[in-house]
Specification:
25 helices; binds adenosine-5'-diphosphate; binds magnesium ion; hydrolase; RNA binding; hydrolase activity; mRNA processing; ATP binding
């Protein structure tokens, strides 16, 4: 009721950070770098920027605040603009990849850490910022970790610049030490005890277990909202679906009045208007049940949660050496994460956390802290970026926790294969151009190959479509109808060209929304693709790269596609079954692919990514001519025998090439 009865300014004054506002500002005045530690919900993200503004910092520059997650950047900016009674995008704005909601009068800017990282390419000293708040540092996202090293240099070069690092957990000493022993400011907590209940036996199906637990709470426990932690979108949807079903059964079979349950999913790909729903107060007499990914662990705070149900799992992007690429995989979360999750139940009053794992798993199987992303993922983009910032030897960069050398070398190798690095590890002309695009190296390469092969117009559309969530809409109750609609767009042997086809048809139907609905396409996704396309076009224009077209000569486009995916090429092994040309990893055609059910299967394909579900499925596949693979592979970029530093890579490369040639014969 608090949110309804109190004005926004009263709510601000009630936050724990408010009681220490003046001391905090004093410490910031006296120090160039400060680490701020406070419980989730204490007001770090929404208040710090405003305090800095109130203390005059915005008269000489922008106060920037970085977030590891897009959802958080958007939702917090919206909240702060409301608190400051200004329109979002005016004084308070946000920027995430392909979406800049700021203007020249913006003084408080929330952004993803990736956006700020890219800004350092254009302005190494970040002159427009007076203060940067590096928020959620405990998450140790890849980009935040790189920013640590870069901002440390900015701090040394610019006396007038201030940096505040915030963390929700207590192991903030590491951050303090990294900057030479800067002060750590603690925001006193205001939390209530949380009763933690472990599962007696390991649970087999945590979706089912969570649904059961939530229903039990709903029927037998007192008021208070429920928060369930799941690993990702699919599980969240399954959980919400099952909960709705149980509620329906209960209502129809019960003679008593069953209290209402408002079931609310939240994950990063959920449209913004649906995301905002979790913050809205439920109707009188209705209990909220939020089903979330670990986004609700620390980056978003929802008040009124009394019950937490924790599966003990989370999805993490991890480099998989067997596949030679990153894959999102489900892992047990760390003890620190489990404790954070439990803490969500004790913000408004004493709460309960139901852990769907055993106490022994907590003690013996969970790591104390999560492994920083930089130590577990592909570093392709980071390598490109640092190289362009003239960091010649990446092993010399000031990392808080350096990535394993093997990771760096693997990433360099992939960039070399794409032609972005030369034989001595320096950026090539292609590499320099690739840095200009806020895209993964593969997609940047595809664009540049589109330029080379004079089919940029077509490739640009494909890249834009690959940069947004799937545009195909497939409601469970109309699966057949929607599949038939999708099939009408199929271009034989290519999902990439199918995406192009969808976009072109949408365009020839005047980009209409009702046309999308009729064809089972997400209009929001297509609009987003159109926006991405126009932004990439701006970059191409700035680089003076003309928008050439091959007038839909499919094979030319296919060749450009092929050039980006040398690593993801596969050859036919059995029906619908392929193996990766490079490492023999099995990979399968997905039933939703345009290549499925053709009546025959092409010998060689490339794919955009592998998705691990019940099998390793290739996502977005195109048939290619094996000749192109040989032609466009790394040998295409002349290899000089005099270079030595990458000799080993070259050797591996040669072996691979021979293996491929043998395979093709
Ligand atoms: P911290 O960063 O310390 O975790 P925040 O500044 O994010 O804390 O949140 C402080 C309070 O602001 C929350 O308890 C919540 O009440 C409110 N709040 C934050 N974001 C939103 C939002 N998008 N909508 C409504 N309330 C919000
Ligand atoms: Mg926060």
């Amino acid at each position: 009721d608090f949110a309804r009865s109190k004005s926004l300014s009263q709510q601000r004054q009630y936050l724990p950070i408010y009681t220490v506002r003046d001391d905090l500002l004093q410490v910031v005045r006296e120090n160039q770098v400060v680490v701020v530690v406070g419980e989730t919900g204490s007001g770090k993200t929404t208040q710090l920027t405003q305090y800095l503004h109130e203390d005059g910092y915005t008269t000489t520059g922008v106060v920037g605040c970085t977030q590891p997650r897009r959802v958080a950047a958007m939702s917090v900016a919206k909240r702060v603009s409301e608190e400051m009674e200004t329109e979002l995008g005016d004084k308070v704005g946000y920027a995430i990849r392909f979406e800049d909601v700021t203007c020249s009068s913006t003084i408080i800017k929330y952004m993803t850490d990736g956006v700020l990282l890219r800004e350092t390419l254009k302005d190494a000293d970040l002159d427009k910022y007076r203060v940067i708040v590096m928020d959620e540092a405990h998450e140790r996202s890849l980009n935040t970790d790189v920013l640590f090293g870069i901002l440390k240099k900015v701090v040394a070069r610019r006396r007038d610049f201030k940096l505040i690092v915030t963390s929700a957990t207590l192991n903030a000493d590491k951050f303090s030490k990294f900057f030479g022993g800067v002060p750590v400011f603690n925001i006193p907590g205001r939390t209530f005890p949380v009763n933690i209940l472990f599962s007696k036996t390991p649970c087999e199906d945590y979706v089912e277990a969570a649904v059961k637990q939530a229903m039990t709470i709903h029927i037998t426990s007192g008021p208070g909202d429920i928060l369930i932690f799941m690993t990702g979108q699919e599980e969240i949807e399954a959980t919400c679906y099952a909960l709705a079903e149980r509620m329906e059964q209960l209502i129809s079979s019960s003679t008593k009045n069953v209290p209402k349950l408002s079931i609310l999913p939240i994950y990063s790909q959920l449209p913004a208007d649906l995301q905002a729903k979790i913050f809205q107060k439920a109707e009188e007499g209705t209990r909220k049940c939020i089903v979330a990914t670990n986004i609700a662990e620390t980056s978003l705070t929802v008040d009124g949660i009394f019950y937490v149900i924790d599966t003990g799992y989370g999805k993490m992007k991890v480099y998989n050496p067997r596949m030679g690429m990153d894959a999102l995989q489900v892992f047990p979360c760390s003890r620190a994460a489990a404790d954070q999750r439990a803490g969500r139940a004790g913000r408004t009053g004493p709460g309960t956390c139901y852990r769907l794992f055993t106490e022994s798993a907590y003690q013996n199987e969970m790591l104390p802290n999560p492994v920083p992303e930089i130590q577990r993922t592909n570093l392709g983009n980071v390598v490109l970026l640092l190289k362009s910032l003239k960091v010649e030897n990446l092993l010399d960069f000031d990392f808080m926790d350096p990535p394993p050398q093997e990771n760096i070398l693997n990433s360099m190798y992939q960039l070399w294969v794409l032609g972005a690095l030369n034989n001595v590890g320096g950026l090539t002309e292609i590499g320099w151009k690739m840095v200009e695009f806020p895209l993964d190296p593969t997609l940047a390469k595809m664009l540049l190959m589109g330029e080379k092969l004079d089919c940029l117009d077509e490739v640009l559309t494909i890249v834009s479509m690959l940069s947004v969530p799937s545009v195909f809409f497939r409601p469970k109750d109309r699966a057949e109808e929607s599949d038939a609609a999708r099939e009408k767009f199929f271009v034989p042997e290519s999902d990439h060209l199918t995406l192009l086809n969808v976009y072109l048809q949408w365009k020839s139907n005047q980009y209409r929304g009702d046309w999308c609905n009729d064809h089972f396409l997400h209009v929001k996704g297509l609009r987003k693709a159109r926006e991405v396309r126009s932004q990439l076009l701006d970059i191409l224009k700035a680089l003076k790269i003309p928008l050439t077209s091959c007038h839909m000569e499919w094979d030319v486009v296919r060749k450009a596609i092929c050039s980006a995916y040398f690593h993801n090429s596969a050859r036919l092994k059995g029906i619908g079954e392929y193996v990766n040309c490079r490492n023999g990893m099995p990979c399968h055609l997905h039933p939703s692919s345009a290549l499925y059910g053709l009546g025959y299967t092409p010998d060689y394909v490339v794919y955009h990514e592998l998705v691990l579900t019940t099998k390793e499925y290739m996502q977005c596949v195109s048939a290619v001519d094996p000749q192109w693979l040989a032609e466009l592979g790394p040998m295409f970029f002349s290899v000089k025998d005099t270079d030595t530093s990458l000799l080993d890579h070259k050797k591996r490369q040669k072996e691979e090439k021979t293996a491929m040639e043998e395979e093709m014969e």
